Give the backbone structure.
Amino acid sequence: MASSTNIDVVEPRRRRRFFDYPRSRVKGFRRWLPSWRVLLGTFLAGCALVAGVVIAAYNTTAVPDSAQAYTKQEASTVYFADGTEMGRIGTTDRTIVPYGELPAFVGDAVVASEDATFWTNSGVDPKGLARAVYENGKRIISGSGGNAKGGSTITQQYAERYYMNNEGSDTKSLTGKFREAILAIKITKSQEKKDILGNYLNTIYFGRGAYGIEAASQAYFAKPAKELTQPEAALLVALIPSPNSWQPKEGEDNSYATALWNRVMDRMVSEGYLSEADRKAATLPETIPFEPANTYGGTDGYLMQLVEKELTATGRFGEDGSELQIGGYDIHTTIDPAMQKQAVKTAQSLPEDADPNVRVSLVSIDPKTGELKSLYGGADAVKDAFNNSTQAKAQGGSTFKPFTLIAALESGKTLTDRYDGNDDLLIPGWDKDPTKKVTNFAGENLGMIDLVQATTQSVNTVYAALNVEIGPEKTADVGHRLGIKDDIGSNAGNVLGTDHVSAVELANAYATIDNGGVYNKWHIVSSVDKNDTLFYKTSQKPERVVEAEVINAATYAMTHVISDPHGSGATAQALNRPVAGKTGSSNENRSAWFAAFVPQLTTVVGISQSKEDGKTEASLTPFGEWKQRGLSMTGGSWPATAWTDYMQAVLKGQPVEDFPDYTMPRATWTPTPTATATQEPTQEAPEEPEEPEFVQVPGNLANMPKDAAIQILQQAGLVPSVTEEYSDTVNQGVVIRVQSTASKVPAGSTVGLVVSKGPDPAEQAPDPDDGGNGNGNGNGDGNGDGGGNGDGNGDGGGNGDGGDGGDGGGQTPPPTQSPQPTAGQNG
């Protein structure tokens, strides 16, 4: 029997790849698990790459001459929008003193506080770096953001502040920290430790405009650095991390500065530089009072403060903005110098008899961008650093009513909705006390009126009922969306502006209305350059917060505050261009506002008054022509006059722009019932009333002869109504303005024409007692001021948005005292 033999054929063994991935000799999921060769190869390649980067960085990093650190530190220059200089942040107050002339404990205090391993490290502290890597790793994983954390040695701080910052290099990212470490190592190799410490002490910023230990010693203790005591040196060293924030300030709580001083003293003990006995005997040294340099003097000082605050908040210029003092930046602002000059002129035009404690605020914002164009913060930022337009806050009064109007329109209300405009109404839900009534100024009873008239005449009873109906929380929500960052209560009285607001935030909110419901946060900085290279640019993210159709309706109503002869802001008709806005006067007449806008510019003017202590609010003391006429100060008085004067100046030569077209909704027509001649009911359906035909209001009638304008209106199916007033700029018989801001109105509507009578022959304001019967309506709560002309007919459009009546020349003056304020008497 034959046997068979099985012969195994062995294939030649193939050479294994070094980088065998995916793995060829295994199957399943193990095929995708890297082998030790892959891991080793990847590790070695990574090490080689890192080593190459480190070597390249080390070889290409040059150490500047240490003397350059002194010369590169420069004040930053701030510019107006046209490129002219506004001022400088920082002064180069520095005197170089050799390290050997300083007491040893000065250097000891710095080493103990900032870098205990300074005398032995290589320029970096591995433990500190490891700690920084760990903290930054946690920051990245958690997504908390922010800048890379420290762990920097004295040499690294020196490298960062005086080499890298002056080059405009990034010093906050991990990449920047890496380059900083390389530079610190090379500095350590090229300079003696005592020289590094001496250079550090001679260039570090200590606050109060002082650079270097010598200038700091003079600024805080009025003595040379060589005469410093140990406690004094410790206090200066304690300020190094954040000198602007931590320095002791006269009359303020300095507990934080004290804690930092104690920390430095304790570290000196633990590091062996100070004995326990000397530590116990030491007390916190007193510093001399700080008198700021006049860099911030005058009215521009308030702008400089805003610039520094805005840039510090970005985190790009040091934690406390101290790098602005030495970085040599070119800072470009949004401030128009011509507008700013006019703002100062206007704000300082208060009559001589005004109370010295009256504060004036004036803010202009470009609604399209949020750019601050002008701001008046006060007369001198050095003498009084409190900014009237950003820090001072007063009750908003009736300037908050548009917030309620917008909320109502969003809730489905229309401008034709009618409410009871009578006085002394009980409105359920208005107050916890169910017997408390809402009043109009001087007890005005207006009957059933629509929301346009209620806005025009600032009728409290209508707006109180409207706010209760829609919910006051909606008023607060609209105010916040438009730009009010301060708290707005959800009580029903918020419609009357019981909450406090700053001028700049009120202007921001009205700018959002002006911009069709698109919000842009106000800002003063446009961009920052470093060595002719863009370093920082303000980025704006426009946000639609209210729908355009709602804003257009609200704006239409707000134009009547100015265009209507009885509007509380009628003074602004003198601008001869479309204006929308609102007056506001607070309870007890403690503030008065005029917040208004043309399509290209939003401006707010406000006045408030404090008592002699400068802090407690006081009622505005009447001044100027309003005092002479026995009137209170209201939004329609000096604020509206100042607003108009300012806007006439800054808009001179600018094109006249119109607001978006808006057509009033058709009111609900209810047929009037009539008696019939038959006893039997008719079988015919009643005839539906005809709805009115709407026609276009002709434009461009201003500066046209009266007869021609009348003919054009009549041809359009409208009824012209002519009133006359004196004018120094428009010839007699020529139309000054048209008293209608609607684009379409029902056929047969009356359209007012204001025609010039030529210059006033008397060349002075008429005596109020000779002006006829006076036709001013003082509607509104708090104090109101109409813009009527006292010309014989006494058309005083005295519509109060506060507490007193119309300020129309020729009308019988209202009482000098406002009615006792109640829960409905904020204008």
